[in-house]
Amino acid sequence: xxxxxxxxILGLPxxxxxxxxxxxxxxxxxxxxxxxxxxxKVGQLLVTAYPTSDYLLFTEAASDxxxxxxxxxxxxxxxxxxxxxxxxIPEMDGKNTPNTYWLAMYRTIAAAxxxxxxxxxxxxxxxxxxxxxxxxxxxxxxxxxxxSIFSKAYHINGDNSSMGIPxxxxxxxxxxxxxxxxxxxxxxxxxxxxxxxxMKLIKGLTFKSPKFHFNMQAANAFxxxxxxxxxxxxxxxxYSSAIFPENNFRPNxxxxxxxMKNNSNTFTPIFTGTQENFNLLLTNVTSSFAMTFGSSRYxxxxxxxRFLDTVTVAGKPFSNYFLTISGTEDKLLVAKYxxxxxxxxxxxxxxxxxxxxxxxxxxxKGNYELALNDLNDFAAVRIxxxxxxxxxxxESKVLSFYKTTDLKEGLMKTLLDFKKQGFVQxxxxxxxxxxxxxxxxxxxxxxxxxxxxxxxxxDDLRRVFQLPPSVTLSGLPKNPR
Length: 481
Hints:
Layout: E1 2-3, H1 7-10, H2 12-18, H3 39-45, H4 56-62, E2 67-68, H5 78-84, H6 98-121, H7 125-150, E3 179-180, H8 184-201, H9 216-230, H10 233-243, H11 264-271, E4 279-286, H12 289-295, E5 298-299, H13 302-308, E6 322-325, E7 328-334, E8 343-350, H14 351-365, H15 368-380, H16 395-401, H17 407-422, H18 428-435, E9 440-445, E10 451-456, H19 469-473
Antiparallel strand pairs: 1-3, 2-5, 4-8, 6-7, 9-10
Helix pairs in contact: 3-6, 3-7, 4-5, 4-12, 6-7, 7-8, 8-9, 9-10, 9-14, 10-14, 14-15, 14-17, 15-17, 16-17
């Protein structure tokens, strides 16, 4: 279960980048450790404790948003192909890879740990403690995302003894160190400890660019997502409700059916806007996701779009704005990200997701009236020309639409359909597929357009992305296959 070198966590490419060899490790000071002598410098370091890489391409390609368009005139992308086929992805640097995401997240963890140590070793006063809170939240978030991608999903009230990911809590000061993946249960325990302490300490901290830091709203949204995955529904309701204490979610959701409708010049800037109340935490990432997923053979096209255009239980479809690539109807992307620059803004937490997390918690608690209220708020801002009289979702509509007599089942189907239609190309669908054991099917064409069908079953080991090859080669155990 252990690995004898630092390479097991960071991987060979990052070590080469940071220290260029073990003999130089103690000769240079790349991590500002001796320079963190004020609270403000700790705050400056924490700018680097947020993701610079995204997980969108490999999670979206693995989900049921993606299709095989066949051996036509589509670009070839190894990450999209291997993710779609649910096979282990070979070592690849560059944008949009699991390897790049793994390294980027452990870089953020390293920055957070350096900040925490500096605060613990010095008397930086109240502001220093507040920055420690931010660092703890960054550390918790990075580990949460890593365990959600590279380990089995948390099993609510079940066995979580499967392998987790190494949880790092101190800065690296030696060139050789043992690491252990721990268990999913132990990783969740550490995340919760950091999350709870971080939220206590961060109170009162202000930022020049609050949307790019763990402000209190973002911290509450993170807590709501974490406790949803963990199955503590009372806390999901508590933390999601704290984002807008007056419970005025609807005017603070994405205006997809109004301001964001039918215009890429407004859709993208609004979606990633720093002045928008629905954006709770943003980050700048190096990514070519949008163009790749739209143009790759294994990506998003008209067949995948059909579900997004279907009528919902409200009686009308949700609005989405699609762009065609090279004027081809089967090369599509949703206008959520910039496509003509090497970087883009990714929304890590939104009011919209927090509302859906609360609705799911209400459903599981049996509070169906409150769940319907949240679902109606979500639908109202996504339906063009929404009519509160005719488009409202009711219990009878849910039961009829899904042809069931089980209201909980119908509401869960409503929720998951709403999320699938509302959060396309945001990575959220893959996490729902995993944590809820949703089975999906991928169609695969051969060169003659003959199709076979591969099913990702509930307990399929391919639901867990494999650790980067350089990490496993150095001794950290692979995920079973």
